[in-house]
Design brief:
The complex is a heterodimer of chains A (483) and B (321). Chain A is built from 22 helices and no strands. With 483 residues, chain A is an all-alpha fold. Chain A folds into 2 domains: 180 residues, no CATH class; 241 residues, MetI-like (MetI-like fold). In chain A, helix 1 runs antiparallel to helix 8. The radius of gyration of chain A is 32 Å and the shape is extended. Chain B is an all-alpha fold. Chain B has 2 domains: 54 residues, no CATH class; 236 residues, MetI-like (MetI-like fold). Helices cover 75% and strands 0% of the residues of chain B. Chain B is flat and about 75 Å long. Chain B starts with a helix and ends with a helix. The chains are: A mainly alpha (483), B mainly alpha (321). The interface between A and B is large, with 117 and 103 residues.
């Protein structure tokens, strides 16, 4: 069948590529606020995408309270707009169904085309609704407040829809008649793919779509603005990082903290290994089990809870203060958490307290995999306890250690923000500010979106480079990759 | 049930221990010193891991006046459960508790189901573009658009101030998918093939063969997922800025801890605070302790029973690495 396709079939196949791409584009448009064809008034938030407009009426008319009250805009107009947005979204959904069905046999394709055409009709109705809503909004008594505007993307969205419609109708004519007894069938490879598709879409929406946000790095952007080319500033924000003295000071300080704390972690990354080796030296299995169970618990509580624990032990009326006051060593309780000295070491200590027992497990398992005959042979040769540890156990654990070390080097810029956020207070801000926390405070706290984006971007790129270098080193030395 | 590596190690060590004893191995003085120090160091460290929880707990169940005077340090006195009862009346806490519990259950269930299905699908050579899509998914582990682009993306999707932001972005978890995929690949292919010969569809094979056989790995990722959901705090902080009714328990706890320290800072700086406010600030210590306890109890209760799965989890990750 594959070999002697008629010309009609090959045209139809090619046409389907056009249709699928057009549908994909229209789905993308659903989520891009700048291409929202329902934005007919300046009062509609710039950050609303077509999808949001068609799903949440309250978001759509968020700023219309006054306009409704003063009757600049009739509420029915906005309801019409909302209904139209729903229609467009539904129409696109129908087209997606068409696109999926186009992977099946002729019977599937026929049904898909039918659904597609109906979808396009609904969408067309929606577009018409938007147009007439615009007509009504344009007649407002207060044009300077309502700012009626013809959505720029209206034509584009309509054009894509028309392309889909024409192609689909053409498909209907091109496709051969299906036999009556034919069933709905689809090739296995496409059937599996379609089951997979929703998950791909999720990954696309939540992991790849945010990358679009990197464009804010090149614009003068404040929350709520629209991006337009006159706000394009090129590499201004990148230069800001190295030119603006205040920012430079911040960044240098932040990098110092980040590298210092990650560095402390890396410098002591042998601790879990030592923990495991010495733990395995204990012959009392019950006690060993006990130690292992309870030292891994802290790993599973959140940083907020770690802070709660720090609080109950070290705050003014916590355990340490009340104990020392009761013993008469201190005259009154002190809040040690409000002490900003030695922050790096303290943060490292909390991290170690939380993580060391857990990180040791992997080494404990590795130790149990070491051939016992090695130890027996060494004992016969008269090796002492420490000689055995150093000459047998440690070399056996080095490969694991090496992989984990490389991973922590690759993650040197990402210490996470939870820990530092919860422990931060007025006295230690300067020395606790790590990159992740800085980005959070700069972006969410101060609303400096472009600069934050630049920092995140650079961090992401550097991290990926570090990761691949670590991987390369691993391949070079061990002949195995780690990612 | 399969023995964990740990249990095997224990057995091995026990045998060795018996062996050495048979030989009437005598402890040298240096060994005794070593053992004492070793046991002592581990004992103390373990104590630092247990004691804070114990301290928290005894302070929530002891007589409140004594707690406020700092007299409860090691032994609980004047036991009562009034503090836990009074938490029930704090409205924002019970709603936070409900949010945390529901996100943990729903989020974990969906994540596990999706990981199982996707993990199965990516083992199917027949799938169109399998390699590409698998990489497309896995690569996302290694890059991140950054906190602000992600935030703006959520805003654009209308997920901010919505419960679904806790659930939907976490459904596809690439790392868990890798774990499931690796596990499914270790299931003998003959099982599946024979089912296919009998005319089973892919979904039947998945339901009847893959799902039951991969339960151990699914349990492991479920536990890690559940702990992650229960502990997660930054998403609440970031995305719920105008929906305090959707704060998670961890976020509430954070707010309570901070409120108190703010009050304390106020007291230290000025001192122009009324007695009533002072009293409430002090008793807020008990509230904080009680909330902390409520937040930590699920983990403490669940952990000892499921420790095996936790440890298997880290080993699986290691195999992959």
């Amino acid at each position: 069948m594959e070999k002697n396709k008629s010309t009609q079939e090959s045209i139809s196949d090619k046409l389907y590529y056009v249709v699928r791409i057009a549908i994909l584009v229209s789905v993308l448009f659903l989520f891009i606020p700048a291409l929202n064809p329902t934005r007919i008034s300046g009062l509609i938030n710039k950050n609303i995408s077509l999808f949001t407009a068609g799903t949440s009426y309250s978001t759509l008319v968020d700023n219309f309270g006054r306009a409704f009250k003063k009757e600049w805009v009739m509420e029915s107009t906005m309801q019409l707009l909302y209904g139209s947005a729903i229609a467009i979204v539904l129409g696109i959904a129908a087209n997606v169904a068409n696109g999926c069905m186009s992977l099946g046999n002729i019977k599937f394709k026929k049904l898909g085309n039918l659904i597609g055409v109906i979808g396009c009709m609904i969408q067309l109705g929606g577009m018409f609704g938007v147009y007439s809503a615009y007509g009504k909004v344009a007649l407002t008594s207060k044009p300077d407040r309502v700012e009626p505007m013809f959505p720029e993307s209206f034509g584009l969205v309509t054009a894509i829809m028309v392309i889909v419609l024409i192609c689909t109708i053409a498909q209907m004519l091109l496709l051969a008649k299906s036999k009556k007894e034919e069933k709905f069938e689809m090739e296995t490879k496409f059937r599996l793919f379609l089951i997979f598709l929703p998950f791909i879409a999720l990954v696309g929406v939540f992991s790849y779509l945010p990358l679009l946000g990197w464009r804010y790095a090149f614009f003068d952007y404040k929350a709520g603005d629209t991006l337009s080319m006159d706000k394009f500033v090129g590499f201004k924000w990148f230069l800001e990082l190295v030119k603006n003295p205040a920012t430079v000071r911040d960044i240098v300080n932040v990098l110092k903290n980040t590298l210092a704390m990650s560095g402390l972690g890396i410098a002591t990354s042998w601790l879990p290994m030592a923990f495991a080796i010495f733990l395995c030296e204990m012959k009392n299995l019950k006690f060993r089990r006990f130690v292992q169970t309870f030292t891994t618990v802290p790993n599973f509580i959140s940083w907020v809870l770690v802070y709660a624990i720090a609080f109950c032990i070290f705050s003014t009326d916590g355990f340490l203060s009340s104990l020392l006051v009761n013993l008469g060593i201190w005259t009154e309780g002190q809040n040690l958490l409000m002490n900003g000295d030695h922050m790096w070491v303290k943060m490292w200590a909390w991290g170690t307290w939380k993580g060391v027992g857990w990180s040791a497990i992997i080494y404990i398992a590795a130790i149990s995999g070491i051939d016992q005959q090695l130890y027996e042979a060494a004992t016969v040769d008269g090796a002492g306890r420490f000689q055995k540890m150093w000459n047998i156990t440690v070399p056996c654990l080095i490969p694991t250690f090496f992989v984990l070390l490389l991973m922590s080097v690759a993650n040197i810029l990402s210490n996470g923000m939870d820990q530092y956020l919860v422990f931060k207070n007025a006295t230690n801000t300067e020395s606790i500010m790590v990159l992740d926390l800085y980005v959070y405070e700069l972006g969410i706290g101060k609303g400096s979106i472009p600069l934050t984006t630049v920092v995140s971007m650079l961090k992401s790129v550097i991290s990926v480079i570090l990761l691949f270098s670590a991987n390369g080193i691993s391949k070079l030395i061990r002949g195995e990759s780690i990612v | 049930m399969a023995k964990t590596a740990q249990e095997k190690a224990d057995l091995k060590a026990e045998k060795l221990y018996k062996k050495t004893h048979k030989r009437k191995y005598k402890l040298k003085p240096s060994d005794i010193v070593f053992n004492i120090i070793n046991y002592l160091v581990f004992g103390i460290f373990t104590l630092t891991c247990i004691f804070p929880f114990y301290y928290l707990f005894i302070n929530t169940i002891s007589n409140n006046d004594m707690v406020l005077r700092g007299q409860i340090n090691f032994i609980p006195r004047g036991l009562h459960i009034g503090n836990y009862m009074s938490l029930l009346s704090v409205g924002d806490l019970s709603s936070a508790f409900i949010v945390s519990v529901s996100r943990t259950i729903l989020g974990t269930a969906l994540m596990v189901a999706a990981s199982a299905l996707v993990g199965y699908l990516v083992t199917k050579q027949e799938m169109w573009g399998r390699k590409f899509w698998y990489r497309f998914m896995v690569v996302t582990m290694y890059f991140n658009a950054g906190i602000i682009p992600v935030f703006l993306n959520m805003q654009m999707l209308g997920l901010t101030n919505s419960f679904w932001v806790y659930i939907i972005p976490g459904i596809v978890a690439p790392y868990n998918i890798i774990l499931v995929k690796t596990y499914i690949e270790s299931i003998p292919a003959e099982l599946e093939e024979s089912a296919c010969i009998d005319g089973a569809t892919y979904m039947t094979v998945f339901r009847k063969i893959i799902w039951p056989l991969s339960k151990p790995i699914l349990a492991t990722i479920a536990i890690f997922g559940a702990v992650g959901h229960w502990n997660s705090f930054t998403d609440s902080l970031l995305y719920m800025q105008s929906a305090p009714e959707l704060y998670t328990l961890q976020h509430r706890l954070y707010i309570y801890l901070n409120q108190a320290s703010n009050l304390k800072a106020l007291m230290q700086s000025g001192g122009s605070i009324s007695d009533a406010a002072l009293q409430s600030a002090l008793s807020s210590k008990i509230i904080k302790y009680t909330i902390s306890m409520v937040t930590v109890i699920p983990i403490l209760l669940v952990y000892p029973f499921l420790q095996r799965y936790f440890e298997e989890g880290i080993m699986l990750g290691a195999v992959k690495g």
